[in-house]
Amino acid sequence: MTLQTQLKHLSLIIGATMLAACGDATTQIIEKDPIVVPGDGDDHDHGDVSSAGRLLVTSKGSNQVTLFELEDNSLLASIGLTFEPAYLYASPSKRYAMLVQRNDNQVEFIDGGLWQEDHGDHLHPYQQAPALMDFSLNGSRPTHVTVGASQVAVFFDGDGQNGVNASAAMFDEMHIGSDNNDYPIQEFDTHMHGAAQARGENLFATLRDANSATTLPDRIARFHAHGDHFHQEETYEVICPVLHGSAQNHDAVAFACGDGVVVITEQDGQFSASKIVNSADFTEGMRIGSLRAHLAGEQFFGIAGSQVFVINHEAGEMEKLDWQPHEGATLLAMELSLDGETLVILDSQGYLSLLQAHAHDNELHWELAHKLDISEADVADMPEGSRFEMTLSGEQVFVASPIEKHILSVDLHDATISTELELDFVPQKLTWLGIVGEVADAHDH
Amino acid sequence: MIKRTLVAVSLSSLFSAMAIAQSLQGQVVDEQGQPVSHAKVQLHGRYQALKADEQGRFQYNALQQGEVELHVSAPGFAHKSLHVQIPEQGLNNLRIVMLTTSIEVVDVTASPFHASAIESALPVTVLSGDKLRNVQAATLGDTLAKEVGVHSNSHGGVASTPIIRGLDGPRVLISQNGLDAGDASRVGPDHAVSAEASTATQIEVLRGPATLFYGSGAIGGVVNVVDNRVPTDSQTRGEWTLEHASVNNQKLASFNFNGGLERVALHLDGYWRESDDYKVPGLADPDDEDSADKVKSSFAESQGVTLGSSYLLDNGYIGISYGRLNREYGIPGHSHGDENIAVTADMQQDRVQLLSELRFEQGFISALNTKLSYTDYEHAEIELGQVGTTFSNESKEARMEFLHNEVLGWHGGLSLHYKRSDFAAVGQEAFTPPSVTDSLALALMEERHFGPVLAQLGARIERVTLKADNLLFPDSAVHGHDDHDHDHDHDHDHDHGDQMTRRFSAEHEFEPYSLSAGLVWDFTQGYNLGISVSHSQRAPSAAELLSFGPHIGTGSFEVGALFKLYQDAHGDTYLGLTDQAIDLESANNLDLTLRKFSGNLGFILNAFYNRVDNYYYQQNTGLFAESGHDHDHGDEHQHGDEHAHDHGELPVYLFTQDDVVLHGFESQLFWQFMPQWKLTLQGDYVRARLQDGGDLPRTPPLRLGANLAYEGQSISADLGLTRYFEQDRTAVLESESAGYTLLDLNLAYHLGLDGHELAFYLKGHNLTDEEARPHTSFLKHLAPLPGRSVAVGIRGYF
User: Fold this and answer.
1) What is the ipTM metric for this complex?
2) Contact A401, A417 (CB under 8 A)
3) In chain A, which residue's Cα lies nearest the Cα of B473?
4) Nearest-angstrom CA–CA distance, B631 and A22
5) To the nearest whole angstrom, how far is the Cα of B479 from the nearest Cα of chain A?
6) Three-state secondary-structure class, residue B374
């Protein structure tokens, strides 16, 4: 198996300067970052870098995380974090896991060990053992982590009681891989439970009036990265009361407000913000609190309690999506498949709904394709503070059941439940790590 | 016969030049006092030559008083150089006596010195006219294969390149009109040369070090393919050929056209050639009973077209040309064993050349020669429709020669030469990392006649920089074979510790220099003795330094000299970055030439001794590496390796440096025993050995040849017999090669048709259908030379 990784911060000059006797000949060789093959590594052509990927699962009440090799469902590694992670995200390419230890003001990163590197003419896949990275983030109450095309934005809420202001950091996988702290941070002048979206050199982040009664922000600003800080380029006039939730798609960045969704679009280098107000389906007190989108898609998906709304910002429309939940089912999680073609909803009754898009009148309409019962247990037995959780790979949905202490995998296309991973702990959060899309053939250099 | 068209300048244009001009009148005669009609008379410092009339008479007007140098040539006569004092009143009855010769004498354009086979200190061979047309082949190597001192590496007839005195690759420069061919042929024997013989007007070979003119790549010699792509006159003439050969069903069509309007000259040439796999006597691979009587993947199809135009001046010309060459050919010995999947190469080259020659009679500078070129080359190796490896070479070259008028009897000048090559190989067999090589050189060349002695001196300094940004060195790529019963799972049994692919950027700077001194002594009439002594240095090529990867063309895993073999505590060998200096290769060469060039019997005898220090060559390390894919065709053949590793492993060859001695001789004897009959005998031999014992691989064997030629009014013919002796001086793990004899016959019937001359011809090669496996070939076990072949063709001139 070809297991290789890049060794960090190594750029040493061998400085082999050699001089010949007559008719000068000098040679200078500079050694650059090598590519390292740790552990079970060889460089032969077996073409078996795992395409199934790996699963990182956190354990309730523990700072230990567990990684499974999905190729053979084997236990791959158990890694101890500094603190118990509250939230778990995957980095843009799904190589790294980002483990948010909110109450302990820290974010740690684990290299899943599977990635491919662009070698110009081909993609070279690597497979290595998972490892805790040296790179970590420290700041007050990191909460929302959002992922752009190649960047990550982490919003630190700050602490109003202790007078710690909020901040936001924008970085990419290169920073994680090379423990590079040379990324920009925006310091706000107050605390807030905010949100940020990284897009190119811009960071769209929330602003809050320090005198506001709520910790939720109500304005949005655009910041431009300059070295280790940002310049606030513009603040959008549109008010976004009790802002919570954000997302970005191919065309726009969106923030969810109490009364609608603010969509920021770019045209000829100029950004403009407009609001799509909540549709007539919204009842009193109802609002969109979370947004989802596919980076290559044109729609946003808003989650308002257990209802889902499809937002077509170009048409300025918001439309309710009927995902046909069973009686009493609350929406626990909703994600778009990595190819953007399936909307996956997990509910509290232990059902997984797979919705597929159909184009109609140049718009995508989503219809329920499958509804699967992914738990045989009585949902009433759900441990206190636990719930079903899911994560998606390119082909599958993995659902962790804290009741049954196992993980099921569901094929996204034919909706078959295909594997079962038994756990000896109560799963909390999980994320899939691996190579998205087709894994290039491993080969020699 | 090619009409020898010489540039005649209208005499009237010279009359008007200067009022107080002196004139020079004379006559060219032979030893019997008979006039030599249409002799070419060249005045040093004048661009255009004069053609004498029927009576051998010529006249120059508008000359300065004082000494002038004349160079006179005519077919069948030895060239003659003479110095003449022009008195105040002019000179009216100069008589120039030419000596007949049995040696064909054609000037070499590859050297700024006046040089031909009989009048230079360094040995040269020139092929032109019918002689070139008779030997021209699909590849440059096969075209020159029978020339004295030159062998072909016979790469299945598709990519053969010339070997000069046992040297090839990065030591022999292939140039096109004096500018680097700009291909990838110096990097691998399976890469074709991008110069075409069928549209060339002459091909010149400089045997021995020519770094003075061409720099690092020419330490072993130069092959210069000359064509008329930048025309130097606007006279209308042309040539066309249609030919079919039996052994490989080769069809060839080519044409050359020259024309223009007074000051504007135009040139157009093109060719198209297609051939199938060629037949061989017996089995192509004698160890494989299933192998056919054809060499698989020896087919080729190529075509090229060149356009050029010049503006003609009174004192020279300036012109530009564009040429495109496409070549698609099989790579023999590159198939997947029994599967017989053909691997083909698809090559394309675009070449722009700007050439100019200007002469000045006044002032210090007598001539300014400028050559510029841009070449964009790419070839892809394709299997199963998929591009496996792509080699590209973008090169730029500029050469300016400033020749000065005579100073204290010396002629010569300065040459400023710049060359840049941006080379990349991408894919499975990219054994060399991308690299950029720049070279800048300044050379001084001077010659002077001291009575009967011509002295030639030269010096060149050069700066070569070679940069490679991404040199990969996977620690695990190379391994030993301690146990020979390893199975296919052995990869998994390896030590599973940390393994690393180290990455480097390498920057080399070399300052090679060359010094050369030569004497040509006309010790008695019709004879001369040439001595040439040179010290030449060569910067190693990118492939020799930086290689690290499988090279299927040579059936080996090639590792450059930047790496070295070490031994660990357990006595196991491993590869690491070298701790030794990367040295220049230095050659000290002594050449002796004795010639008799007048009369019916002539000869040229050369002996050479060439000691090369820090010679780069590939040494078998005994280690093995993955081939990158499962080719099993033949490392055991090509390197005579006894171990058959048929699961995609290749022996690792490391470029190392050692002191080497090459010595040998070349001899040619020409006997015009009747006016229409000429017998030529020739022989050559080279011994290439390591100073500390051992021989270099693929060294040409002793060769003797005889050629009997008849030149009648309308019929010409020649019969050639060449014996290649056995080669038993072999390198480590190289097998001996048996000798063989080749019999060739050329026949032509010439027909004059109203300004159009036609030749119907027949060429027979290897008429005895002899199995010939050249020792110089990487593929001798898989691809013997073609069997009996008869080609018929028709050629026209106008």
Assistant:
1) 0.74
2) no
3) A445
4) 43
5) 12
6) strand
